[in-house]
């Protein structure tokens, strides 16, 4: 079981660990955000097209006997 520390010591440790983090620059954040938006758009278009195609094929199969 982990040893308990007081809140003040905990906050000091958190601050120490946070200072070790390498934060992305504004440019890196903007590029990453843009890439995510582009990939989400491609995925949405692909799945929309696949859904429409499968719906059309299913309507052809199910309307054969009608």
Automatic annotation (TrEMBL):
Chain ranges passing through the membrane: 30-50
UniProt keyword annotations, A-Z: Cell membrane, Membrane, Protein transport, Translocation, Transmembrane, Transmembrane helix, Transport
Location of this chain's protein in the cell: Cell membrane; Membrane
Domain of life assignment: Bacteria
Keyword Ribosomal protein among record annotations: no
PROSITE patterns: SECE_SEC61G
Database matches in InterPro entries: SecE_bac, SecE_sf, Translocase_SecE/Sec61-g
Subunit structure: Component of the Sec protein translocase complex. Heterotrimer consisting of SecY, SecE and SecG subunits. The heterotrimers can form oligomers, although 1 heterotrimer is thought to be able to translocate proteins. Interacts with the ribosome. Interacts with SecDF, and other proteins may be involved. Interacts with SecA.
Assigned protein family: Belongs to the SecE/SEC61-gamma family.
PANTHER family the UniProt entry points to: PROTEIN TRANSLOCASE SUBUNIT SECE (PTHR33910)
Protein name: Protein translocase subunit SecE
Encoding gene, per UniProt annotation: secE
């Amino acid at each position: 079981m982990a040893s308990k520390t007081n809140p003040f010591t905990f906050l000091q440790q958190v601050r120490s660990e946070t200072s070790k983090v390498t934060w992305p620059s504004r440019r890196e954040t903007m590029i990453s955000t843009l890439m995510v938006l582009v990939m989400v758009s491609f995925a949405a278009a692909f799945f929309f097209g696949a859904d429409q195609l499968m719906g059309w094929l299913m309507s052809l199969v199910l309307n054969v006997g009608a």
